[in-house]
Every structure is written in structure tokens, then in C-alpha cells.
């Protein structure tokens, strides 16, 4: 990669990283909203400066099949996150105390959808779309591992939360990076990520649970759930991975 492109790549990433994390130093909701929406605007302008027409350069193009990828991803993210919740309850690691009535769920759901969509899209651009746009000449597993590690490191405030959290972040990062690589877009990865975040917020807002013991950590089950999804995706997309591997050798 020429020096000029390296400088453009690094400076662009630093700019996006700063905009993404800046609101985390404040508690005001409006600051978070402005910067998360502003992130998408700056990413659009940055993509144009770097030679693309817009966010399609970072994987959010409206090419044929994008809606299918999005819906598949949403269903997958919801399913595999809630799988860990159900298994945790069935194993007795958690006990359900109460469930929000349907009117309450319907009232809160639009805000949850909005509040999870924008940050999910922003993080997908930062840790996957931007990297794919600039580094897709790398071999598949090199790029996938780089993206997954960047995704883990992007969770600055969770790096000291223990091995279970780091493992589930790494596995989810691998799943999402793999989704980008095999589809050449962000839509499937965004759908999975958004679905997982919807499920996370819903499980906190709509279902009250209590841990059975201080040692019961359902984060390990969440990691296992993403590991299962990773294996399934590797089986489904093994031929595409071989083709892409051959193309960059």
C-alpha cells in the first residue's frame, strides 16, 4: 500500500474512532445521539474523500439482496442471543422474576430499535466496513482476525470485565467479520449485530431475571452461542472462503 494511502487509512480510522468514543465521556443523551448520527455523516464524507461514492464503499451499498442479508442477520442475531438466555434459564443459572406485559413491550420497542440500530451501524463501519474497504487484499483469515481483534479492542470500557466477556466479544467479532468477508458487504453482519443488540436490550428491559448464584455467569453461554454460530457459518460458507482464499493467493 502506498504511503499516501497508508496515511489516509490511519488518519481516517483515528478520526472515526474518536467520533465513535467521544460521547462515552459524557452522560447527556443528546451528546451520544449527535455523535452517533454524526459518525455516519462523517463516514459518508470520508468515504467520498477516499474515492467512493458514499457508504457503499464501506459495505452499506444498496446492491441486489441487501434487504435479504439484513433480515437474515436480524433473525440470526436475535435467535442466537436468546438461545443463550433460554439455556441459562433451563440450566437454572437464572430465574425469571417477571416479564413486561405486551403493551409495555410495544411502547418501548421502537426506541430500542432506533437506539440499537445507529450505534450498531457505526461500530460495523469502524471495525469491519472501513477495514474491509482498505484491507480486503489480505488473505481471508488474516483480515477476519484483524477485524475481530479490532472489534474486541474497540470495547475499551469492557477489557477488564474478565475472560468470559473477552471470549464472547472475540467470537462475535469473528462471526461478524466472516459475514462481511463472504458477502462482500456489511448488511448480514449489521443484521446479526443489530439483532444481538436488540435482544440484549430487550432481555434487560422486558425480562427481569435473578442469578441463581454469584458464580453463575451466563456470559459463558453467550460465548458458546456465538461459537456455535461461527461453526455453522464456516460449514455453510466453506466453499466461498476457499474461493476467496484462492483469489488472493
Draw up the topology in text:
Blueprint: H1 3-21, H2 29-49, H3 66-90, E1 94-99, H4 102-135, H5 140-154, H6 163-183, H7 187-205, E2 207-211, H8 219-236, H9 238-248
Antiparallel strand pairs: 1-2
Helix pairs in contact: 1-2, 1-4, 2-4, 3-7, 3-8, 4-5, 4-7, 5-6, 6-7, 6-8
Describe the structure.
The structure is a single chain. The protein is about 75% helix and about 5% strand. The protein is mainly alpha-helical. The protein has a two-stranded antiparallel ribbon. Helix 2 (about 30-50) packs parallel to helix 4 (about 100-135) and helix 6 runs antiparallel to helix 7. It is globular.
| DSSP helical segment count | 9
Number of strands: 2
**Percent of residues in helical segments?**
over 70%
Largest sheet: 2 strands, antiparallel
- Globular, elongated, flat, extended or rod-shaped: what is the shape? globular
Report Rg: 19 Å
Question: What are the secondary-structure elements, in order, as H or E?
Answer: HHHEHHHHEHH
Query: Strands of the biggest beta sheet: in what spatial order?
Result: 1-2
Give a quick rundown of the structure.
By secondary structure, the protein is mainly α.
Based on the model shown, name its key terms.
globular; 249 residues; two-stranded antiparallel ribbon; mainly alpha
Amino acid at each position: 500500500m502506498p504511503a499516501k494511502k497508508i496515511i489516509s487509512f490511519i488518519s481516517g480510522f483515528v478520526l472515526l474512532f474518536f467520533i465513535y468514543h467521544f460521547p462515552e465521556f459524557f452522560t447527556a443523551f443528546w451528546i451520544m445521539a449527535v455523535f452517533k448520527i454524526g459518525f455516519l455523516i462523517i463516514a459518508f464524507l470520508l468515504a467520498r474523500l477516499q474515492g467512493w461514492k458514499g457508504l457503499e464503499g464501506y459495505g452499506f451499498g444498496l446492491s441486489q439482496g441487501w434487504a435479504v442479508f439484513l433480515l437474515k442477520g436480524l433473525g440470526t442475531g436475535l435467535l442466537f442471543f436468546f438461545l443463550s438466555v433460554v439455556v441459562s434459564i433451563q440450566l437454572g443459572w437464572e430465574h425469571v422474576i417477571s416479564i413486561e406485559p405486551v403493551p409495555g413491550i410495544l411502547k418501548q420497542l421502537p426506541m430500542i430499535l432506533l437506539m440499537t440500530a445507529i450505534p450498531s451501524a457505526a461500530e460495523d463501519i469502524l471495525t469491519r466496513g472501513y477495514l474491509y474497504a482498505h484491507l480486503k487484499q489480505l488473505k481471508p483469515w488474516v483480515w477476519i482476525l484483524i477485524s475481530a481483534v479490532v472489534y474486541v479492542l474497540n470495547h475499551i470500557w469492557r477489557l477488564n470485565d474478565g475472560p468470559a466477556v473477552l471470549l464472547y466479544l472475540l467470537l462475535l467479532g469473528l462471526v461478524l467479520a466472516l459475514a462481511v468477508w463472504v458477502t462482500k458487504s456489511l448488511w448480514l453482519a449489521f443484521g446479526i449485530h443489530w439483532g444481538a443488540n436488540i435482544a440484549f436490550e430487550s432481555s434487560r428491559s422486558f425480562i427481569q431475571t435473578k442469578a441463581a448464584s454469584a458464580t453463575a455467569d451466563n456470559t459463558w453461554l453467550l460465548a458458546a452461542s456465538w461459537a456455535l454460530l461461527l461453526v455453522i457459518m464456516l460449514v455453510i460458507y466453506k466453499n466461498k472462503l476457499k474461493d476467496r482464499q484462492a483469489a488472493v493467493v
